[in-house]
Protein backbone atom coordinates (compact mmCIF):
# COMPACT_ATOMS: atom_id res chain seq x y z
CA UNK A 1 0.00 0.00 0.00
CA UNK A 2 1.29 3.45 -0.93
CA UNK A 3 1.66 5.97 1.85
CA UNK A 4 0.36 9.50 1.35
CA UNK A 5 3.94 10.75 1.54
CA UNK A 6 4.81 8.63 -1.52
CA UNK A 7 2.35 10.44 -3.79
CA UNK A 8 2.39 14.06 -4.91
CA UNK A 9 0.86 16.07 -7.73
CA UNK A 10 3.27 14.51 -10.21
CA UNK A 11 2.35 10.97 -9.10
CA UNK A 12 4.85 8.72 -7.35
CA UNK A 13 7.53 10.74 -5.56
CA UNK A 14 9.98 7.85 -6.01
CA UNK A 15 9.44 7.73 -9.78
CA UNK A 16 12.37 8.61 -12.00
CA UNK A 17 11.86 8.73 -15.75
CA UNK A 18 14.31 6.54 -17.60
CA UNK A 19 12.43 6.27 -20.90
CA UNK A 20 13.26 8.80 -23.62
CA UNK A 21 10.84 11.57 -24.52
CA UNK A 22 8.84 10.90 -27.68
CA UNK A 23 8.08 13.35 -30.48
CA UNK A 24 4.45 13.50 -31.57
CA UNK A 25 5.26 12.02 -34.96
CA UNK A 26 7.26 9.19 -33.38
CA UNK A 27 6.03 5.59 -33.30
CA UNK A 28 5.80 3.40 -30.22
CA UNK A 29 4.27 0.05 -29.34
CA UNK A 30 3.03 -1.83 -26.30
CA UNK A 31 1.21 -5.05 -25.47
CA UNK A 32 -2.35 -4.98 -24.16
CA UNK A 33 -4.47 -7.93 -23.06
CA UNK A 34 -7.61 -5.78 -22.62
CA UNK A 35 -7.96 -7.22 -19.12
CA UNK A 36 -8.35 -3.99 -17.15
CA UNK A 37 -5.30 -4.92 -15.08
CA UNK A 38 -4.01 -1.35 -15.25
CA UNK A 39 -7.13 -0.34 -13.27
CA UNK A 40 -6.46 -2.81 -10.46
CA UNK A 41 -4.20 -2.40 -7.46
CA UNK A 42 -3.40 1.21 -8.39
CA UNK A 43 -3.10 3.79 -5.64
CA UNK A 44 -1.22 6.40 -7.65
CA UNK A 45 -3.96 7.76 -9.94
CA UNK A 46 -3.61 11.43 -9.06
CA UNK A 47 -6.41 13.75 -10.20
CA UNK A 48 -6.04 17.33 -11.31
CA UNK A 49 -8.76 19.84 -10.55
CA UNK A 50 -9.80 19.48 -14.19
CA UNK A 51 -10.05 15.70 -13.81
CA UNK A 52 -12.30 16.09 -10.77
CA UNK A 53 -14.48 18.67 -12.56
CA UNK A 54 -14.89 16.32 -15.56
CA UNK A 55 -15.89 13.39 -13.34
CA UNK A 56 -18.27 15.63 -11.39
CA UNK A 57 -19.89 16.77 -14.64
CA UNK A 58 -20.18 13.15 -15.80
CA UNK A 59 -21.85 12.08 -12.54
CA UNK A 60 -23.72 15.38 -12.12
CA UNK A 61 -22.50 15.70 -8.55
CA UNK A 62 -20.61 18.52 -6.78
CA UNK A 63 -16.82 18.04 -6.93
CA UNK A 64 -16.55 17.78 -3.14
CA UNK A 65 -19.14 14.99 -3.11
CA UNK A 66 -17.24 13.06 -5.79
CA UNK A 67 -13.98 13.51 -3.88
CA UNK A 68 -15.48 12.26 -0.63
CA UNK A 69 -17.08 9.25 -2.31
CA UNK A 70 -14.28 8.08 -4.60
CA UNK A 71 -11.01 9.74 -3.62
CA UNK A 72 -8.39 10.14 -0.92
CA UNK A 73 -6.86 13.49 -0.09
CA UNK A 74 -3.49 14.38 1.38
CA UNK A 75 -0.84 17.10 1.32
CA UNK A 76 2.10 16.59 -1.00
CA UNK A 77 5.40 16.06 0.81
CA UNK A 78 7.31 17.91 -1.90
CA UNK A 79 4.78 20.41 -3.27
CA UNK A 80 2.94 21.06 0.03
CA UNK A 81 -0.20 21.36 -2.10
CA UNK A 82 -3.43 19.35 -1.83
CA UNK A 83 -3.24 16.00 -3.61
CA UNK A 84 -6.32 14.03 -4.62
CA UNK A 85 -6.14 10.46 -5.89
CA UNK A 86 -8.64 7.74 -6.67
CA UNK A 87 -9.20 5.45 -3.69
CA UNK A 88 -9.09 1.73 -4.61
CA UNK A 89 -11.92 -0.43 -3.28
CA UNK A 90 -10.54 -2.83 -0.67
CA UNK A 91 -13.58 -5.10 -0.98
CA UNK A 92 -12.89 -5.34 -4.73
CA UNK A 93 -9.22 -6.35 -4.38
CA UNK A 94 -7.98 -2.82 -4.87
CA UNK A 95 -9.92 -2.09 -8.05
CA UNK A 96 -10.47 1.46 -9.22
CA UNK A 97 -13.86 2.64 -7.86
CA UNK A 98 -15.02 3.22 -11.45
CA UNK A 99 -14.03 -0.20 -12.80
CA UNK A 100 -17.05 -2.25 -13.86
CA UNK A 101 -16.07 -5.68 -15.11
CA UNK A 102 -13.07 -4.90 -17.29
CA UNK A 103 -14.39 -1.52 -18.38
CA UNK A 104 -14.33 2.05 -17.06
CA UNK A 105 -17.76 3.34 -16.04
CA UNK A 106 -16.68 6.94 -16.70
CA UNK A 107 -14.61 6.32 -19.84
CA UNK A 108 -15.72 9.60 -21.45
CA UNK A 109 -14.50 11.50 -18.38
CA UNK A 110 -11.57 9.35 -17.32
CA UNK A 111 -8.59 11.06 -15.62
CA UNK A 112 -5.69 12.16 -17.80
CA UNK A 113 -3.42 9.50 -16.29
CA UNK A 114 -5.82 6.82 -17.54
CA UNK A 115 -6.43 8.39 -20.95
CA UNK A 116 -2.67 8.59 -21.60
CA UNK A 117 -1.70 5.11 -20.42
CA UNK A 118 0.76 3.61 -21.25
CA UNK A 119 2.08 7.04 -22.20
CA UNK A 120 2.83 9.60 -19.51
CA UNK A 121 3.18 13.37 -19.69
CA UNK A 122 5.76 15.94 -18.61
CA UNK A 123 4.96 19.67 -18.56
CA UNK A 124 7.58 22.38 -18.04
CA UNK A 125 7.07 25.75 -16.38
CA UNK A 126 6.95 27.42 -19.79
CA UNK A 127 4.19 25.08 -20.92
CA UNK A 128 6.15 22.65 -23.09
CA UNK A 129 4.44 19.24 -23.16
CA UNK A 130 6.34 16.00 -23.72
CA UNK A 131 5.36 12.34 -23.58
CA UNK A 132 7.15 9.09 -22.79
CA UNK A 133 6.27 5.40 -22.69
CA UNK A 134 5.74 3.67 -19.35
CA UNK A 135 6.65 0.00 -18.95
CA UNK A 136 3.75 -2.46 -19.21
CA UNK A 137 3.64 -6.10 -18.17
CA UNK A 138 0.23 -7.28 -19.33
CA UNK A 139 1.23 -9.05 -22.51
CA UNK A 140 -1.39 -9.69 -25.15
CA UNK A 141 -1.95 -7.99 -28.48
CA UNK A 142 0.80 -5.64 -29.63
CA UNK A 143 -0.53 -2.18 -30.42
CA UNK A 144 1.55 0.21 -32.48
CA UNK A 145 0.77 3.88 -33.10
CA UNK A 146 2.24 7.30 -33.59
CA UNK A 147 2.18 9.40 -30.42
CA UNK A 148 0.00 12.10 -31.99
CA UNK A 149 -2.53 9.58 -33.32
CA UNK A 150 -2.74 7.79 -29.98
CA UNK A 151 -3.33 11.05 -28.11
CA UNK A 152 -6.02 12.10 -30.58
CA UNK A 153 -7.78 8.75 -30.17
CA UNK A 154 -8.41 9.61 -26.51
CA UNK A 155 -9.10 13.34 -27.03
CA UNK A 156 -5.94 14.35 -25.14
CA UNK A 157 -5.14 17.31 -27.45
CA UNK A 158 -8.60 18.79 -26.79
CA UNK A 159 -7.83 19.08 -23.08
CA UNK A 160 -4.13 19.85 -23.28
CA UNK A 161 -4.49 23.63 -22.73
CA UNK A 162 -6.39 23.02 -19.48
CA UNK A 163 -3.83 20.44 -18.32
CA UNK A 164 -0.95 22.81 -19.06
CA UNK A 165 -2.65 25.64 -17.18
CA UNK A 166 -3.27 23.37 -14.17
CA UNK A 167 0.37 22.26 -14.11
CA UNK A 168 1.66 25.82 -14.35
CA UNK A 169 -0.68 26.98 -11.58
CA UNK A 170 0.55 24.21 -9.28
CA UNK A 171 4.21 24.98 -10.02
CA UNK A 172 3.63 28.66 -9.25
CA UNK A 173 1.70 27.87 -6.07
CA UNK A 174 4.51 25.62 -4.81
CA UNK A 175 6.74 28.67 -4.45
CA UNK A 176 3.99 30.68 -2.74
CA UNK A 177 3.11 27.90 -0.30
CA UNK A 178 6.76 27.26 0.56
CA UNK A 179 7.15 30.93 1.54
CA UNK A 180 3.92 31.05 3.54
CA UNK A 181 4.59 27.72 5.27
CA UNK A 182 7.77 29.27 6.66
CA UNK A 183 5.81 32.31 7.84
CA UNK A 184 2.55 30.87 9.14
CA UNK A 185 1.86 29.43 12.56
CA UNK A 186 -0.06 26.11 12.45
CA UNK A 187 -3.52 27.68 12.66
CA UNK A 188 -2.88 29.93 9.67
CA UNK A 189 -1.18 27.09 7.76
CA UNK A 190 -4.30 24.97 8.20
CA UNK A 191 -6.49 27.79 6.95
CA UNK A 192 -4.22 28.19 3.93
CA UNK A 193 -4.64 24.51 3.09
CA UNK A 194 -8.42 24.85 3.33
CA UNK A 195 -8.30 27.74 0.85
CA UNK A 196 -6.07 25.72 -1.49
CA UNK A 197 -8.48 22.77 -1.49
CA UNK A 198 -11.31 25.14 -2.34
CA UNK A 199 -9.49 26.95 -5.14
CA UNK A 200 -7.93 23.91 -6.77
CA UNK A 201 -10.65 21.28 -6.40
CA UNK A 202 -13.95 22.14 -4.75
CA UNK A 203 -15.05 25.68 -5.60
CA UNK A 204 -16.46 24.66 -8.97
CA UNK A 205 -19.86 24.21 -10.59
CA UNK A 206 -19.85 21.16 -12.84
CA UNK A 207 -22.46 22.83 -15.06
CA UNK A 208 -20.13 25.74 -15.93
CA UNK A 209 -16.92 25.90 -17.98
CA UNK A 210 -13.84 24.88 -16.04
CA UNK A 211 -11.18 27.37 -17.17
CA UNK A 212 -13.07 30.60 -16.25
CA UNK A 213 -13.81 29.13 -12.82
CA UNK A 214 -10.16 28.24 -12.31
CA UNK A 215 -9.04 31.78 -13.12
CA UNK A 216 -11.73 33.24 -10.85
CA UNK A 217 -10.67 30.89 -8.06
CA UNK A 218 -7.04 31.92 -8.43
CA UNK A 219 -7.97 35.58 -7.96
CA UNK A 220 -10.04 34.61 -4.92
CA UNK A 221 -7.18 32.51 -3.55
CA UNK A 222 -4.68 35.34 -3.98
CA UNK A 223 -6.97 37.64 -2.02
CA UNK A 224 -7.54 35.05 0.73
CA UNK A 225 -3.84 34.30 1.13
CA UNK A 226 -3.06 38.00 1.41
CA UNK A 227 -5.69 38.28 4.15
CA UNK A 228 -4.14 35.36 6.03
CA UNK A 229 -0.67 36.84 5.68
CA UNK A 230 -1.96 40.13 7.05
CA UNK A 231 -3.63 38.35 9.98
CA UNK A 232 -0.39 36.47 10.74
CA UNK A 233 1.65 39.68 10.71
CA UNK A 234 -0.83 41.46 12.98
CA UNK A 235 -0.84 38.48 15.34
CA UNK A 236 2.95 38.59 15.61
CA UNK A 237 2.89 42.34 16.19
CA UNK A 238 0.41 41.88 19.06
CA UNK A 239 2.53 39.09 20.55
CA UNK A 240 5.63 41.31 20.49
CA UNK A 241 3.78 44.22 22.09
CA UNK A 242 2.54 41.96 24.93
CA UNK A 243 6.04 40.85 25.91
Automatic annotation (TrEMBL):
Name the UniProt record assigns to this protein: YkgJ family cysteine cluster protein
InterPro entries referenced in this protein's UniProt entry, alphabetically: Puta_zinc/iron-chelating_dom
Species of the source: Faecalibacterium hominis
Amino acid sequence: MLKDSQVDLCGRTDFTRTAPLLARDEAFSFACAGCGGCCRGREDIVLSGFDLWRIAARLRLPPRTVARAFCRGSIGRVSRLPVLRLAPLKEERGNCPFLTGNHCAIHDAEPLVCALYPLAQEITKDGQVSYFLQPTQCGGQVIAARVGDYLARYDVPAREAADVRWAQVCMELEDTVERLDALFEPVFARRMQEKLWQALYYRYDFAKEYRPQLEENLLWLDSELKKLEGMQMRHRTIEKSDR
